[in-house]
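Changelog note: in this version the structure field was regenerated for every chain. One regenerated record is shown below for reference.
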Amino acid sequence: MLTGKQKRFLRAEAHHLKPIFQVGKIGVNDNMIVQISEALEKRELIKVSLLQNCIEDKDEVAEAIAAGTDAHVVQIIGSTIVLYKASQENKQIKLP
């Protein structure tokens, strides 16, 4: 689990990032989980946006992605989810 201080640090780091994945009408699927997992391995910190036609609740979507990728949900703000997972190969972010 992430501490409050770590989450605050990651929120600041994620502020300038643009969402690189979008969840739409079909929701979260296995292919999306695999792609998000690969992106997390490369970047460690990403944003996922939910489109207006997404039927599922944003908390459920965040939980499904986090469970599937073994990542941490840093923040859900509006229709954007911020995810963090420490990289195995190329660690870039040093948590406080």
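Spot check on this record: Strands lie at 21-23, 45-50, 72-77, 80-84. Residues 30-43 form the longest helix (14 residues).
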